[in-house]
Design a protein that fits this description.
By secondary structure, the protein is α/β, with parallel strands linked by helices. The protein has two domains: about 150 residues, Quinone Oxidoreductase, Chain A, domain 1 (Alpha-Beta Complex); about 150 residues, Rossmann fold (3-Layer(aba) Sandwich). It contains nine helices and 15 strands. The longest helix has 14 residues. It is globular and about 60 Å long. The protein starts with a strand and ends with a strand. The chain binds NADPH dihydro-nicotinamide-adenine-dinucleotide phosphate. The site of NADPH dihydro-nicotinamide-adenine-dinucleotide phosphate (NDP) has 31 residues, from helix 2 and helix 3.
Length: about 325
């Protein structure tokens, strides 16, 4: 059973040397347990936060701990009647090939609804994050301007498409021409600002003639400062993530004045604290996928041992779409 451990806390930016790949015995399922062969591992930005020994909303890893993470896998041995061999499941089974789990730790997947990999993306944690943050905190109204950063990514791509479904003007911010072209031409956003090209401020101003009513924040840093400078009165900001500051670069923020003078609502959230929201959001998004209104893109790294490198890539924008690792064949 190949596993990926955190060898040491990163000093500054994470490197491949901060991980260790080990071989362990394949576990035996006990009573009320199943043995799962992981097929896809999800790589997510929050995993970087878990690697630092600091207080957060969840416990951090210690050296020698296995990297945690969501997976989709196949039940290959079962002591649970309702989870027969051959069932596809989603759980927090970590960076490893095989895991044992109980039924209440697993979500059963129906491959007929959508490809099972989507349980880690658009029909899973990132999709629910987008739906919850936009609808519950952003409260978009038709005709308003919605802005989302990391717009081509797992969360951002869903935020913008839902905002379009709700009748908003949607402006994305992403790194590079390819990602921006995809966001506008494939996903149907009204505009996308390439923050790596030219005068980002001027391009953003031109793309938001009516300023910004809803901002879904994924990155922080200069991009956040810029968007706060164009907030409207009574705008809403969902603080979902601050990825530009995760990898050893803590950030300052100077935009408080914009919150005050615009009487803006700014709220952070953690999607795992809103599990009751998931089934409804997933059901609605599955319907939009079927209707062709919601598109998604995956970026799949091959083999569990490629996970550390792919994870470093996620933190520097090398991924294009939801970053997954294929651990074993479907
Ligand atoms: P993505 O698929 O969007 O991948 C991460 C993207 O972030 C990269 O592709 C890159 O896009 C962008 N990025 C990386 N570094 C920087 C940087 N220095 N400056 C600007 N952009 C950068 O990841 P997710 O959709 O999974 O996550 C997006 C955000 O949502 C993250 O901040 C994450 O922590 C947060 N999140 C929060 C949750 C919650 O419960 N609050 C739950 C899930 C996610 P580009 O090339 O365009 O720069």
């Amino acid at each position: 059973n190949t596993q990926v451990l955190m060898k040491q806390h990163p000093k500054g930016a994470v490197t491949e040397q901060d991980f260790e790949i080990v071989q362990r015995d394949i576990p035996k399922p006990g009573p009320d347990q199943v043995l799962v062969r992981n097929v896809y591992l999800s790589l997510d930005p929050y995993m970087r936060g878990r690697m630092d020994a600091v207080r957060s909303y969840a416990a951090h890893l210690n050296p020698g701990d296995m990297m945690g993470g969501g997976t989709v896998g196949l039940v290959i041995e079962s002591n649970v009647e309702k989870l027969p061999v051959g069932t596809y499941v989603n759980g927090m089974l970590g960076w490893q090939e095989y895991a044992v789990a109980k039924a209440n730790e697993l979500r059963v997947l129906d491959p007929k609804v959508a490809p099972v990999s989507t349980a880690l993306g658009v029909l899973g944690m990132p999709g629910c994050t987008a739906h919850y943050g936009l609808m519950s905190i952003g409260e978009p109204k038709a005709g308003e301007t919605v802005v989302v950063s990391a717009a081509s990514g797992a969360v951002g791509s869903v935020v913008g498409q839902i905002a379009k479904i709700k009748g908003c003007r949607v402006v994305g911010i992403a790194g590079g021409k390819d990602k921006c072209d995809y966001v506008v031409n494939e996903l149907g956003f009204d505009a996308c600002i390439d923050y790596k090209a030219g005068d980002m401020q001027a391009a953003f101003k031109a793309a938001t003639p009516n300023r910004v009513d809803v901002y879904f924040e994924n990155v922080g840093g200069d991009i956040m400062e810029m968007v706060f400078g164009r907030l409207n009165a009574f705008s809403r900001v969902a603080i979902c993530g601050l990825i530009s500051g995760y990898d050893g670069k803590p950030q300052a923020f100077t935009g408080m004045r914009h919150i005050l003078v615009n009487r803006a609502k700014v709220q952070g959230f953690i999607i795992s604290e809103h599990m009751g929201y998931w089934p409804g959001a997933i059901g609605e998004m599955a319907g939009w996928i079927k209707a062709g209104k919601l598109k998604y893109r995956e970026d799949i790294a091959e083999g569990l041992t490629s996970a550390p490198k792919a994870f470093l890539g996620l933190l520097t924008g090398k991924n294009f779409g939801k970053q997954l690792v294929r651990v074993s064949p479907e």
